[in-house]
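Incident log, support desk, overnight shift.

02:14 A customer reports that sequence design results differ from what the structure should imply. Their input is reproduced verbatim below. On-call engineer (initials T.W.) acknowledged and began investigating.
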């Protein structure tokens, strides 16, 4: 568990059942806005993380409520504590899904802070390799980040990669680390996004809790798509209004990426620490349509990035042959949604696999 903090100043007026972005419910604290947002004009004091002990860095991350800034949002201090052997630290600045610009924007807007966040994680992990992956097609100047990171972290490897969708982060990094090292033992890799590295920097160096994050607000139904910095708990309706509002009625509003995101119940649901995008999609973008019978075209198998045969898995699951589906690779499904997107019969394959216990890919 990670600590939680009020994202705005105010007074607690109650505790009630609140709605989560995915339509679920959870206890929530109601705040009446009041007081001041800043620290009475004082400049934030900076703590010297490069002389801090490992346990103090972990305590700081826990107390400031830092979790991974993407699903599944596991507490960063727990992940770091469970990763004892020095292996490889990877900063992954490449999005796994189209339309998302969050990580590129963080690298462009906060290069020094992301580099320091990476330095903090490197101090805990003492990795033998540090690799920075950057999106070759994001159109941002990564030189300021590279320069800041090289000053702090001398043995740095920078790689610009072209994005490919869907992308299995785990499989990609495994292949990357194995390159040119055939026969040598696999290096354990700790993978972190620029947003998570930024949150680590703010927690440890500025003693600032995880109160706000960058996120993409886009999709064909948003008037002026943008990457915004927003407080945790801001309603998605307010974010869309900040981008000029909607162009007509969206077909659906998705929290997260277009392949793996979840449909938002309505515009009042809040963003959380793991919401990296709010996408208001138009009808052509969702490729909405009625479900038809499978025509055995094989497009779902061609689209699957982990080599599964989704149509065969579906048939097994429909017949209740779950163990057989598992032996045919269901646990390897990363729920990327590519099969459902490719299917001309609009069969909700990925939703079916999720309902039968396939688990979204874990980043490390
Ligand atoms: S959702 Fe699962 S089965 Fe479908 S393409 Fe992605 S990994 Fe393959
Ligand atoms: S893409 Fe759809 S229609 Fe084609 S084989 Fe797969 S499930 Fe059947």
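02:41 Re-run completed on a clean worker. Output:
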């Amino acid at each position: 568990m990670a600590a939680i903090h009020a994202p705005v100043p105010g007074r607690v007026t109650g505790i009630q059942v609140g709605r989560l972005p995915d339509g679920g419910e959870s206890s929530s604290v109601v705040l009446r806005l009041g007081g001041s947002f800043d620290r009475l004009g004082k400049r934030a004091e900076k703590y010297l993380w490069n002389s801090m002990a490992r346990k103090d860095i972990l305590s700081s991350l826990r107390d400031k409520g830092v979790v991974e800034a993407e699903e599944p949002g596991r507490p960063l201090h727990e992940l770091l504590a469970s990763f004892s052997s020095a292996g490889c630290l990877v900063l992954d600045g490449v999005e796994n899904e189209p339309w998302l610009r969050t990580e590129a924007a963080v690298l462009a807007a906060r290069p020094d802070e992301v580099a320091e966040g990476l330095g903090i994680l490197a101090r805990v992990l003492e990795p033998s390799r540090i690799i920075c992956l950057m999106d070759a097609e994001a159109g941002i100047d990564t030189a300021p980040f590279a320069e800041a990171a090289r000053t702090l972290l001398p043995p740095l490897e920078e790689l610009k990669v072209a994005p490919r969708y869907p992308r299995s982060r785990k499989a990609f990094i495994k292949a990357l680390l194995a390159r040119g090292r055939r026969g040598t033992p696999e290096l354990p890799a700790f993978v972190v996004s620029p947003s998570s590295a930024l949150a680590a920097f703010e927690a440890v160096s500025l003693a600032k809790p995880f109160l706000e994050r960058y996120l993409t607000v886009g999709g064909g139904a948003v008037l002026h798509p943008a990457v915004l910095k927003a407080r945790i708990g801001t309603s998605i309706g307010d974010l869309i209004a900040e981008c000029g509002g909607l162009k007509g009625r969206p077909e659906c509003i998705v929290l997260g990426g277009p392949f793996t995101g979840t449909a938002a119940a309505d515009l009042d649901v809040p963003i959380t620490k793991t919401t990296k995008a709010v996408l208001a999609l138009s009808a052509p973008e969702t490729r909405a349509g009625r479900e038809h019978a499978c025509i055995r075209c094989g497009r779902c198998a061609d689209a699957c990035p982990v080599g599964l045969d989704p149509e065969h898995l579906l048939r097994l699951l429909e017949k209740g042959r779950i163990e057989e589906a598992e032996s045919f690779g269901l646990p390897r499904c990363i729920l990327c949604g590519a099969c459902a997107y490719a299917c001309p019969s609009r069969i909700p394959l990925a939703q079916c696999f999720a309902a039968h216990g396939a688990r979204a890919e874990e980043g490390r």
